[in-house]
Task: inverse folding
């Protein structure tokens, strides 16, 4: 009796694995295998967007441009400039009663090539880079890197590049100073030890004679690239080439309980949301999934969440459902509910000092809800209304989904933001919700397979 009361009164926190039976354990492993496979072929926003469209089409989704009218139960998508995807399953109710939206981002921190990247120095050839998003620069040296992206020639011809993933491909790397000669480097602050300008990629070392008879490694690289892709040095100016870790997603731990992979922020949420939408049929309210680019650099640009392409997509839904009155879009947003689905800082026992243990997100304790993010007194946060938090809680508890409510670190230790406030500003009820991650933004991030599966279950329940 007393123990029962204790169970009722206390908000107990324990590993979700404790109540995972064999059947569920196998479901979790199988789901995680699918996730890891998807990650290996979706390291960049363009690759993720292309694979998301492929998965959607296999599940009956149609390009919205091919539809003049939309009926209840229809499944449509809009691919925006190959970098962001907007999907919807039309619900029974009118759109003006509000949508149920899940938004996640498909870009991840990385290194981009500069517009004029190629140079040579003392018989070695390099690509000059400019980092993208919040990285700890030292983590990107001395690891195998692959090159992904597109080169668009002036005539519009598009060349897709993916080199370093296949076992037979070469890889590339950024060198670091040997410890023997690093006395000055050791004395620098961690954030200053590696200079952004010295994050240059080593790409070649065999010189050939150029037309003037001068020996050149750069010329050799250009010749190889010309033979392989038909490009010249000038074509780099209209390219988008991204350097990402060449290693594959793997199960982590003797118990196979975790996933180690590049880009889990935020592909762990975008993948689980995508999978959940594929299984959403005939929802009451229209289910919308937004997979956006550019979150890691502020959500700006015409493929980021700030872009009005989102409004355009929702307007197209309204038009094609025959719901059109002036200012209807604002009403739709005002009555919509959303999960801003993004990763959370997982509590790391090795760095316990940055977290408030009573308000942190722990690996394997389920999906984390962040009522707010922000920094320095919640600045820059969208603070979800308590009524809405309760509404979400109810869904989770009804479906026996493990969840935890957390903050991003101790007060004033740092902070961060997501796309939540952008949607909240439109009038949508929104809360951050996602999977806790260790080593966030590092070339190899860690998540718990239990949490990945709970995220998927959360998104399914939200749309059902
Ligand atoms: Mn994120
Ligand atoms: Mn991030």
Result:
């Amino acid at each position: 009796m007393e123990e029962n009361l204790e169970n009722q009164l206390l908000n107990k926190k324990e590993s979700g694995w404790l109540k995972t039976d064999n059947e569920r354990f196998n479901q979790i492993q199988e789901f995680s295998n699918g996730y890891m496979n998807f990650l290996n072929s979706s390291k960049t926003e363009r690759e993720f967007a292309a694979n998301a469209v492929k998965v959607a089409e296999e599940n009956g989704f149609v390009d919205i441009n091919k539809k003049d009218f939309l009926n209840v139960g229809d499944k449509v998508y809009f691919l925006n400039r190959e970098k962001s995807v907007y999907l919807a399953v039309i619900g029974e109710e009118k759109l003006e009663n509000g949508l149920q939206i899940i938004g996640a981002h498909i870009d991840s921190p990385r290194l981009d090539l500069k517009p004029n990247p190629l140079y040579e120095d003392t018989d070695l050839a390099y690509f000059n880079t400019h980092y993208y998003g919040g990285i700890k620069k030292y983590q990107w040296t001395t690891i195998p890197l692959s090159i992904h992206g597109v080169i668009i020639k002036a005539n519009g011809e598009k060349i897709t590049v993916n080199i370093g993933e296949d076992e037979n491909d070469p890889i590339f790397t950024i060198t670091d100073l040997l410890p023997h000669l690093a006395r000055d480097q050791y004395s620098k602050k961690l954030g200053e030890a590696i200079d952004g300008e010295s994050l240059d990629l080593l790409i070649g070392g065999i010189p050939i004679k150029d037309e003037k008879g001068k020996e050149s490694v750069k010329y050799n690289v250009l010749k190889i690239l010309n033979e392989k892709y038909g490009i010249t040095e000038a074509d780099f100016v209209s390219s988008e080439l991204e350097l990402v870790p060449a290693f594959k997603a793997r199960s982590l731990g003797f118990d196979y309980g975790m996933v180690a992979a590049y880009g889990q922020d935020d592909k762990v949420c975008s993948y689980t949301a995508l999978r959940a939408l594929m299984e959403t049929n005939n929802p009451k309210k229209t289910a919308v999934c937004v997979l956006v680019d550019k979150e890691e650099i502020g959500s700006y640009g015409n493929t980021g969440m700030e872009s009005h392409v989102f409004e355009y997509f929702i307007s197209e839904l309204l038009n094609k459902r025959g719901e059109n009155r002036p200012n209807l879009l604002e009403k739709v947003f005002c009555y919509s509910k959303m999960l801003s689905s993004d990763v959370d800082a997982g509590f790391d026992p090795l760095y316990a000092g940055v977290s408030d243990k009573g308000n942190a997100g722990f690996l394997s304790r389920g999906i984390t809800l962040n009522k707010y993010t922000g920094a320095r007194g919640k600045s820059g946060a969208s603070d979800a209304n308590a009524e809405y938090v309760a509404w979400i809680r109810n869904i989770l508890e009804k479906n026996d989904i493990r969840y935890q409510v957390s903050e991003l670190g101790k007060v004033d230790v740092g902070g961060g933001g997501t796309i939540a406030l952008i949607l909240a500003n439109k009038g949508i009820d929104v809360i951050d919700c996602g999977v806790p991650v260790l080593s966030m933004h590092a070339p190899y991030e860690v998540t718990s397979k239990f949490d990945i599966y709970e995220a998927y279950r959360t998104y399914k329940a939200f749309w059902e």
User: Anything to note?
Assistant: Residues 2-108+262-463 form a domain with the Aminopeptidase fold (CATH 3.40.630.10).
